[in-house]
Amino acid sequence: MTTAPESFDVIIIGAGAAGLMCALTAGQRGKKVLLLEHTDKVGAKILISGGGRCNFTNRSIAPECFLSGNPDFCRSALSRYTQADFISLIERHRIPYHEKTLGQLFCDGSARAVVALLLAECAQGGVDVRVGHAVTDVSRGDGFRVATGHGCFTAPALVLATGGLSIPKMGATGFAHDVARRFGLRVTDLQAALVPLTAAPETLGLETSGLGRELAGVAVAAIVSCAGQSFRENILFTHRGLSGPAILQISSYWRPGQAIWLDLVPAHAARDFLLQRKQARPKAETKTILTEILPTRLAHALAEACLPPGPIAIVPDRTLVAFAARLKHWEVRPSGSEGWAKAEVTLGGIDTRDLSSKTMEARAVPGLYVIGEAVDVTGWLGGYNFQWAWSSGWCAGQAIS
User: Fold this and answer.
1) Residue 243 to residues 58, 182, 386, Cα–Cα distance (Å)
2) What dotted CATH number matches 197-337?
3) What is the pLDDT of residues 76-130, one digit of tens each?
4) CATH classification for the domain delimited by 6-192+344-399, as one of 3.40.50.300, 3.40.190.10, 3.30.365.10, 3.50.50.60
5) How many of the other CB atoms lie within 10 Å of CB of 317?
6) Nearest to residue 135, comparing CAs of 2, 19, 30?
């Protein structure tokens, strides 16, 4: 005899940041909520974020810090559930936190505290949380029917909160995109974002210095620019190319074939510095002079690749001026990126033209909602994507009837 499916007011697929927020919001409104997760634990990305301390939001959340085919789409959700609202939730649960650079907020202790907060709020709302429930089919008739390896469930409302393609080892799949397409929703082009970029030594003009072997692990404060956007943070040389916060940020704007530009000495007027040092320290080697404003290994590599050996006094002024200009505007043409395995988020997603910016409900499919990373809204590095998860999840949780 076939067992009748269990019925709920809403089924949420995906127990990450957005799914948990949506579940607790709907549950505390009195809705009967089923939250399904195909892996064996909830909040996997939360647990690894911020080096295990969870960069849970940013004090400077603004729509301009998000990429989307419709840059205005995120405004409604971000204004209705703000970073201050989530900070209040953190404080109500007495989770100690601190602010790092550029408004980034982290737990003092473990990211597990944020997951525990979300589960406690879900419990308060009576949310039925089930892990290890891989969805095998989703259909729509009189409401939605979700089949799993542990049985079938029905509800008049369905929320897709399974994220994007980034970090497949954490269980990421294209599930939300596939289901959305099945129901007629459009999906934009998808690209790995907040991801290290690959670059061969010759793309840096450092053929003789051995980019990977000699510079891997070197970090330097820089301004990185591409497509009219610039970020001032550290960059990190790796065995395969470039990483670090500024590179991850610009990767969301970079497209294959494009160049990026590095200001390797953003705190200095390189031309004046070099000409003044030539007068003040004529017998010093150029590589020694450069260590005053650059990490030693990078200074030596640049001097070896771009300047004649010996004291700075023998270097013509025009050569120093040209080198200074290059330090301030160093062109790099990446060969690619590290891809989905290293990407923190997915750029692109379910087309915002098919969703309500107020409720996150599909315009042509009543009862179907899409939230979080699955949507074509991608934030900067630094807590912005978590805030989008909280805001979009809250809006859908409030809207479910």
Assistant:
1) 21, 37, 21
2) 2.40.30.10
3) 999 999 999 999 999 999 999 999 999 999 999 999 999 999 999 999 999 999 9
4) 3.50.50.60
5) 11
6) 19
